[in-house]
Amino acid sequence: VRKFVLDFFFEEKQNLRFDVGIPGKKCGNIIFTAEELSNCRDIATMQLCANKLDKKDFFGKSDPFLVFYRSNEDGTFTICHKTEVIKNTLNPVWQPFTIPVRALCNGDYDRTVKVDVYDWDRNGSHDFIGEFTTSYREFSRGQSQFNVYEVKKEKRTGNTYSLQHLSNPSQPTSLHYMSPYQMNAYAMALKAVGEIIQDYDSDKMFPAYGFGAKLPPDGKISHVFPLNSNSENPNCVGIEGVLEAYFQSLRTVQLYGPTNFAPVINQVARCAEDVTDGSQYFVLLMITDGVISDMVQTKEAVVNAAALPMSIIIVGVGPAEFDAMEELDGDEVRVSSKGRIAERDIVQFVPFRDYIDRQGNQVLSMARLAKDVLAEIPEQLLGFMKTRDIEPQPALPTSSTTTTAPLGLNNLCI
């Protein structure tokens, strides 16, 4: 709970040593998190009470106490305050306490603050009662009136809490980290798939969108925004243009949760709805770390899109479990929503980690990835054309200088 404030000297090597437990014995792990402190000097004094908490003790009521967590720059949560235990009550009133605002949220009034409610047990195995999230700005509004929060009872697991899409691209631990020496996994996946499929696009203009970020200047959260910041024309020139827009976007937006897939899928589906005569076919490439917050809406979006001239490629990056992505890939069981089954399988998912060359050869990794994710596209395109009785168009006459033919695959959306 205690925070240690250290002066940082850029020009010096500052060694830190931590001694815990009995020398020579493995006593667990230390999780060390550092963050530059803001200049905020505000002090917050607050008091909380609760009503009708769950009864956890067999021979009594509950012995509730609160644990406050601040969110860090890397998306994790760490404890910043614990209240005292109030014995044998479901309606506790805790003593007022004072805490520096920068300890609570580093001076960012809108940064998430999470509060867990526990029932104290003598043996240390405290029972989880519930949780709620807020911010210091919301807390501060309660100075002249009560703030009321619903304690949600979903049990969280583990000791580290993830807040989606709060990783900092400037940190090497981020999947979006822009190293001067090599491409990150997002860029590699984009380049691998894009450079092959772009040859089937007639104008090489690719609409590219991001999802899950706070946008400047007002910090509004968006689940589908153009990477080039041009809402009127999200198109980028070639895959290199998409990569440039991606890197530029990382410098201007703040990655943020929740992570919703449905808005992007529906955005591309609206384009596909306008061209169902077989003259164009749309491919949506989605690159994700596996977190998804709107699974129900995404399944509905996929079912709707399955009736349109489009395919969806999902590339999972990072070490996360991708069970949700596997569920969207209809190889084994076709995706369904509200009793409707997708007309055809249009989703291909692969985890990028399965294709990384052990010798660090990025070119080979990208080639392996592109081969697998694009394998199902021709059959998916033909499947749509056949169900709509759309015949292939005859080849155009050739000249002595050029050879052209109408291409069914005409749009890559990223």
Folded structure, characterized:
The protein has nine helices and 19 strands. It has 414 residues and is of the alpha+beta class. Helix 3 packs antiparallel against helix 4 (238-252), helix 3 crosses helix 8 (362-373) and helix 5 runs parallel beside helix 6. It is globular. The protein starts with 42 loop residues before the first strand and ends with a strand. It comes from Oncorhynchus mykiss (Rainbow trout).
Describe how the helices and strands are arranged.
Blueprint: E1 43-46, E2 64-71, E3 77-82, E4 97-100, H1 101-105, E5 112-119, E6 127-135, H2 136-140, H3 185-197, E7 205-207, E8 209-210, E9 213-215, E10 220-222, E11 225-226, E12 235-237, H4 238-252, E13 254-255, H5 262-273, E14 282-288, H6 295-305, E15 310-316, H7 323-328, E16 336-337, E17 340-341, E18 347-351, H8 362-373, H9 377-387, E19 411-413
Parallel strand pairs: 14-15, 14-19, 15-18
Antiparallel strand pairs: 1-4, 2-3, 2-5, 5-6, 7-12, 8-11, 9-10, 9-13, 16-17
Helix pairs in contact: 3-4, 3-8, 5-6
Strand order of the largest sheet: 3-2-5-6
Largest sheet: 4 strands, antiparallel
Number of folding domains?
2
> Helix/strand/pairing class, anyone?
alpha+beta
Large-scale geometry: globular
Tally of contiguous helical segments: 9
CATH architecture of the largest domain: 3-Layer(aba) Sandwich
Model regions low in confidence, pLDDT < 50 over at least 5 residues? 156-167, 399-411
Q: What sequence of helices (H) and strands (E) makes up the elements? A: EEEEHEEHHEEEEEEHEHEHEHEEEHHE
- Rg, Cα atoms, Å: 26 Å
Distance between the termini: 43 Å
Number of E-state strands: 19
CATH class of the largest domain, please? Alpha Beta
Mean pLDDT: 82
Helix content: 10-25%
Strand content: 15-25%
Q: Which topology of the largest domain does CATH recognise?
A: Rossmann fold
